[in-house]
Write a structure and sequence with these properties.
There is one protein chain. The protein is α+β, with helices and mostly antiparallel strands and 385 residues long. It has helices at residues 5-11, 13-18, 20-26, 31-39, 58-69, 73-86, 94-101, 226-252, 268-301, 306-335, 346-356, 365-375; strands at residues 109-122, 125-135, 143-152, 155-156, 166-172, 177-179, 193-203, 207-208.
Amino acid sequence: MAESLLDAAKNLVPLIRANLDRIDSESQLPSELAEAMAQKGLFSLYVPRSLGGPESDPITAFHVVEEISSVDGSTGWCSFNGTALTAAVSRITVAAAKELFGDPPDVRGSGSARSGGTATVVSGGYSVSGRWNYLSGLDHAKCLFLNCDLVDDNGPVFSGDGVPVSRVAIVPLEAGTVHQNWTTMGMRGTASNDAEFIDLFVPASHTYSRTEPAVHKNPLYNPQTAILCSWTLAAANALGMARGAMEAFMQLAAAGSTTSTTLLRDRTTVQTTVGECEAMIGAGRSYVLSAVGAMWESQVTRSPDLMDKAVHARLSIAHAIRQSVKAVDMLFYAAGTGAIHRSNGLERFFRDLHVSGQHISGLHSNFELAGQLLLGATPNAATYS
């Protein structure tokens, strides 16, 4: 029987665990770990089968990222972010994908949804210039997916309602300059550095618009919900880290403290905290699996209630991330002074979750937007869609 994606993730856990110190100190994934993950398709879970990818459904991908993240947040984030970015290869032709990623394609990518530069219309394509940040997984990417403000002979291009028009350019990493500036309190191993490009010609076939239908036919690539399929994995990353934090706390709970011989596990306040955190993590996880599962079913069946289901998927994702951050806060506080030592692992999940929790998928603007939609009010929340 062929190895499943989840089995592949589980089989790589010992390698991830053995490299935890290097991931943190080198601010990237060790090359042997990145290569092993790439070979199993763990950075490209949503890449079409016709391009050699797994073309996984979001629930299967959730379990994969959750498993990896329960050992290390940065490694799980790279699986999530790589998958989210490379799913967009579905928006260019097979021929264009092979030009960029080889034949057979080895689809490894990073990128930025932020517009860090411009794509100026020229004969046959675009001239791309700018500097993009937060390019997670830059260390093991072959190409970058860069959101650009579109410019023509008349200057910046705007839509009919006055919004700047953007276009995504897929460019070889080697064509630009990498700036090593990723120094953070957590998620250090994501190598989320900057890259800069100056007057790089990009053929039109290597670009796409996020609002256009995909070339490859699969509900996964529906532009209406593609971002939520991606953000499902951000929730998996957070929930996996929360589970890892709980496991680390359980080991600490078997110890006393500097001021008491009573074990942490025998203290009423600690017992209450563990029970509450377990409920928070479990409930957040169940909501994601239920809401995203319902959205996915509507995508597959082309049900007219798809966008109604999408509202709850967005809510569940933001809720899971916020609850994961809250749970690790509570566990960290309950552990007392012992929590601050790198040797126990809890502080690593604490640092990583407080960085990942700043991602737009976990911000309160998602609750605001959902509330507006549920109330039938005019949506005006500032959030990426």
